[in-house]
Task: structure prediction
Amino acid sequence: MSQVTTNPEAEVKQEEHVHEHRDDMGAKMGMWLFLFTELLLFGGLFVLYMAYRTEYSVDFKVAATELAVGMGTVNTIVLLTSSLTMVLSIVALQRGSKKLSLFYIASTIGLAGVFLVIKFFEWSAKIHHGIYPGGEELLSKPNGEIIFFGLYYTMTGLHGLHVVIGMVILGFMYYFVKTGKFNKGYFVKLENGGLYWHLVDLIWIFLFPLFYLLH
Result:
């Protein structure tokens, strides 16, 4: 008669695996709901912008000439490229290529850093010339231009904050992919991180023409 031996630890692990709960659809719905609240936030600012632009259309066009269109264009290209690398990171992980996925996530984070560096130099140039909320140079301008730059710093600053948050999120995504917590069988959270990053890019696509392409 043969004796059957059991491994208690193996049974516990198997039981945990059987009872593992994953709600991928719920995770996606939660992310879409969060993104909707973000759209409401920026949507309100866009409505405010359009109201003031209608009232001070001439001043807004004059103020827009103070912005560096070249820097804004480069930043637009940078963010569009980062959306591409974000998509490629998800595709790579779905195909089981962990190293390639990590490369594209790192590339996305790097491009986000490039965006912020360019924005830093752009803001620094304006501040150096006194064009910032409360600055003497700006206060000497018509009300419409003052409002334009108030909205410019508020909306691009809020967007920049979202870029920083996105970099932090992508940093966690990089860690989870590297440690194997995200893999070809479980990548929904990486997809959610990608959705957030695409929203950040989408918001900039609206900000760019509203502020930089008025003249």
